[in-house]
Design a protein that fits this description.
Elements lengths: L10 H20 L4 E4 L3 E8 L8 E6 L2 E6 L6 E4 L4 E13 L2 E10 L33 H18 L5 H16 L12
Antiparallel strand pairs: 1-2, 2-7, 3-4, 4-5, 6-7
Length: 194
């Protein structure tokens, strides 16, 4: 019987596809009028503005689910809906002097400390959050328990995408195998996993 499904890409092909996807993603992010980085707990955005501007020339509004950053009288640099809620009282913005002029630095504190954001505002191109590695997120800043939870989450996410068992399922399978080895007299052919 012919199998019409496309074959899974080889590791080399997957690497190439990932590299292409990453290059496209980087190019999309590079066209944004701001730069942003995130940890699992918060998000930092910076955008350059002319050095002669002062705080009063800016229009910055941070709400629980929205963000607007603009120079008064001009098209907003960012104006949109956030993909997830933030703590407004913990989120801040500052105007900083940098070698190239000035920069607006915005810090957003995530309500959900357990999820990656695919973009700053929902109208912006998304990044592939499944490709974020713990190093990007300063995972070492998290306490042991949170860290192992995040690592398990990320492992499970990767396993799921690859069609492999998650760590819990793997544990159950290992236990079952061990039990089978210890009880060769029992017939496990009908045993159901779940």
């Amino acid at each position: 019987m012919a199998d019409d499904r496309p074959a899974s890409p080889t590791p080399e092909e997957r690497k190439k596809l990932d590299a292409e996807a990453k290059a496209k993603e980087d190019a999309e992010q590079a066209t944004l009028p701001y730069k942003w980085t995130q940890t699992i707990q918060d998000l930092d955005i910076t955008t350059s503005i002319p050095g002669n501007l002062k705080g009063r020339d800016l229009d910055v509004k941070i709400s629980r689910t929205g963000l607007k950053v603009a120079i008064k009288g001009q098209e907003p640099i960012i104006d949109g809906t956030l993909p997830h809620a933030i703590h407004t009282d913990e989120s801040t913005w500052t105007l900083e002097t940098v070698p190239s002029g000035k920069e607006i630095a915005i810090h957003l504190d995530k309500v959900n400390k357990m999820e990656w954001w695919a973009h700053v505002v929902t109208t912006a191109p998304k990044i592939d959050v499944s490709k974020i590695t713990p190093e990007d997120s300063k995972l070492s800043d998290l306490d042991g328990e949170t860290r192992s939870m995040v690592e398990k989450m990320m492992f499970d996410q990767r396993q799921k995408e690859a069609g492999n068992p998650t760590s819990d399922e793997q544990k159950k399978m290992d236990l079952l195998k061990k039990f089978q080895a210890e009880h060769p007299e029992m017939d496990f052919s009908n045993a159901k996993m779940g």
